[in-house]
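Quick entry, no commentary yet.
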Amino acid sequence: MTTGSHVPEDRRYTASHEWVRQEGKVVTVGITDHAQAELTDVVFVDLPAIGKEGHPGQPVMVLESVKTVADVYAPFEGKVVAVNSELKSHPELVNKDPYGAGWLYKLEVTRSEGGSPLLDAVGYRAHMEKGGGH
């Protein structure tokens, strides 16, 4: 169904295949279409606790698929302020709609510098073409 190549222009991307959409001091985080295609069918989403501290390059949560277990990393330093609890009973939303209903968590950013620079859609596509996909 999904090819793993869809990259919306309205958000930023990490080299580790998370997407970030900024809304003031809060960012919504999910995994990219490429990442969900690599994982195959997501069967369990281990959501972070509200209030959990996120640090760039550190795992915040885990996704389990029929194929593997994958960490999801924090793009910035901050605190988890919301999670997509719908994923507890419908983990397949991560595969079906990774940029919409399959969002993972929201992070209130306390420090945006110090992490890996985020890529725009063009930069993320270039990263993928250079072999940035797993």
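second:
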Amino acid sequence: MGMPGINISFSEVAATAIRRGERGVIGMILKGTVPSKNPVEVYSVKDIPSTFSNANKEQLQLALAGYVNAPRKIVAYCIGASAEDYTEALDWFEVNKFDYLVIPTVETDGKTKEIASWIKSLRGEGKRVKAVLPNSPSDSEGIINYTTEAVTADGVTYTAEQYCSRIAGIIAGTPLTIACTYAPLSELTDCTRLKKDDMDKAVDAGEFIVFFDGVKVKVARGVNSLVMTTDTKGAQFKKIKIVEAMDMIHDDIKTTAEDSYLGKYANSYDNKCLLISAINGYFSKLIADGILSSAEVGIDVNANRIYLESKGEDVKSLNDDEIKTHDTGDQVFLYAKVKILDAIEEITLPISI
């Protein structure tokens, strides 16, 4: 029979959720001195261990810079400087909470594809995590492919690999009501410059880039590496903002169902309505917060009918209300439709004189 569980399917037109969760946890794998307490939780600069190398301290500081907000925290898992793989760290992160993974040496270590595959695998298992990776055309909503070759701050040049921590901090520090599109990077004085057509091609190819607008350096568009869309993964899945909202809703319902519903209520029609009411309350909060524009949820009559038929019951004579209130064993079949608000990213303003 396996573990009791809740199956959550999230496409552009369907989602289920209960309460809003906290986001913005960056997982970071650092090579160097391994502290006695590993991993290290970093909320501010004062939490960075003095025993860390200057390079590792800098990576943590880059991530902490954030955007509108700082990341909620950084969980830094340290491995030895001569470690040949990330197995120990990945095993820890697989069973602990984080939202965005970043590894400042991933390209140098030749592990970019491995990490991308690992993230995709976890997302396939229902763990809605993401990674910021350099030069990683992974075609996945879970991978942010940062490709700007070089940026400069105070005379110091950072490669794409070295600057992924800063990008992760920007994304993790962006509220769900806005996007990181055009987020300014005030510390930068220059970056690798591309022509307009080349920038358009990069964004269309799922590349997260920064650009110089003639005055300052800022993020181009907040996109992930997804390129190929399907019937269940449309263009919205290319937007970091939209995917973050989807992941939040997924995690909220999963956590709340496991903690508060599974095994704790008789599967009666009244209790199903209680669950629906809780979900509606959660959606209403997201609408009030400007994250959703609309939402509805209810019992999936068609799924109920299919389930009952699979159990050998004759349901041909039953109407929808009877199917809706019928005993479905330990299964609860719901449907939900939500519309996630996007951010303003295009303005058309013809001016006549």
